[in-house]
Write a structure and sequence with these properties.
This protein is α/β, with parallel strands linked by helices and about 280 residues long. The protein has a domain of about 70 residues: ACT domain (Alpha-Beta Plaits). The chain is built from 11 helices and 11 strands. The strands form 2 sheets. It has a 7-stranded mixed β-sheet, with helices on both faces. Helix 1 runs antiparallel to helix 2, helix 3 packs antiparallel against helix 4 and helix 4 runs antiparallel to helix 5. The longest helix is centred in the C-terminal third of the chain and has 15 residues. The mean pLDDT is about 95.
Length: about 280
């Protein structure tokens, strides 16, 4: 195993302490924000390593030394607060002065405290009467990619890895991101519109945890891709079901419930941190 250490600021002293705790044979720099502690046999010291990393605001992951990014065939990701740095519905609500109310419901849903379908229907209902053009406005004015997103997607493309975006967000946004980022597949909710205004309803099946998992299984089956060839990334409770179908699952700046059920967690670095988890 290798121990991957990542962070915005990595002190040499912390690296040496971590290498000793892990019983590593050497320290290898991967990038300005990532180091590989080679031949780390000290997984028994994981608690000590976790304590050191939390204090120093570092991410850590024990990785099999033969794991290669090229061995994977599909990268599946959540959109809001994972691929992009906003919750789209919260920003739409801000345009009508309801962001605090909607954001509170969003947080409860992402922590798994309330049923997702009900929470989404309640939030979308609050948007009734909003001009459809508000979605493009949010995309143009407020949406930014999460740090490292383009690096991660470029690495996936380089190795021939297909990309799937499964989102509880909206097609108005995913269909703009798809050509912009060269995504292979997107799956999200469709907002009902009448006379240029949102009706406060969703058309068709709500993209909840089950729907995200089902779409992943459909795409992977159509491509003949096995579970161990899939990387999944998400941040909320409604991502757990699709992440459970992945050979490697990565919690990205995620809620505690997600971090606890994922293979790895990136709490401090950007999406490009996922690339450093593979040789």
């Amino acid at each position: 195993m290798h121990l991957i250490i990542q962070g915005a600021e990595i002190e040499t002293g912390d690296l040496k302490v971590l290498a000793k705790a892990a019983g590593a044979s050497g320290i290898e720099q991967i990038s300005t924000s990532a180091f590989r502690l080679r031949d780390a046999g000290g997984t028994s010291a994981a608690t000590e390593i976790a304590t050191i990393c939390e204090r120093a605001r570092l991410d850590f992951a024990f990785i099999p030394e033969d794991r290669r990014l090229a061995d994977f065939k599909l990268l599946v990701m959540d959109m809001d607060s994972t691929l992009i740095n906003i919750e789209t519905i919260d920003e739409l609500a801000d345009l009508v002065g309801l962001k605090p109310q909607v954001a509170a419901i969003t947080e409860q849903a992402m922590r798994g405290e309330i049923e997702y379908n009900e929470s989404l229907q309640c939030r979308v209902a609050l948007l009734k009467g909003l001009d459809e053009s508000a979605l493009k406005r949010v995309y143009d004015e407020r949406l930014k990619l999460s740090p490292g997103a383009e690096t991660l997607l470029a690495a996936a493309k380089k190795h021939g890895i297909k990309t799937l975006l499964v989102s509880g967000g909206f097609t108005h946004v995913t269909e703009l991101l798809k050509p912009r980022l060269g995504l292979d597949y997107t799956y999200s909710n469709t907002l009902a519109v009448m006379a240029g205004k949102l009706t406060g309803e969703i058309i068709g099946r709500i993209v909840n945890a089950d729907a995200k998992r089902d779409e992943l299984l459909r795409v992977s089956a159509s491509l003949g891709i096995r579970r161990e060839q899939i990387i999944g990334m998400g941040d909320g409770a409604n991502d757990l079901k699709f992440m459970a179908e992945c050979g490697v699952s990565i919690a990205y700046h995620a809620k505690p419930i997600v971090r606890g059920q994922s293979t790895h967690a990136l709490n401090y670095v950007g999406l490009d941190g996922a690339v450093h988890l593979f040789n």
